[in-house]
Specification:
Layout (H helix, E strand, L loop, with lengths): L16 H28 L28
Length: 72
């Protein structure tokens, strides 16, 4: 049985060290580049179409059903 007062015990001396720091730092740097790329892609999107207040169904303006066939 291990005594809690033992100074030579390595069970409580575990540290992440340099490798753990490098992994976390690399993930942080990758996150920064991914966020910059995402913002660049969002800026390329066109603005949403303006809604009209005519009361018409604007979700299907061409008069077609979900498969694209012309309604009669």
């Amino acid at each position: 049985m291990l005594s809690s007062g033992s100074n030579s015990s390595t069970l409580n001396d575990v540290e992440p060290g340099l490798l753990g720091f490098l992994v976390i730092a690399g993930m942080g740097i990758a996150l920064v580049f991914l966020l910059r790329s995402m913002n660049k892609q969002f800026r390329k999107l066109p603005p949403p179409p303006e809604e009209t207040e005519t009361g018409e169904d604007t979700s299907n303006p061409a008069g077609t059903d979900a498969e694209g066939a012309k309604r009669g």
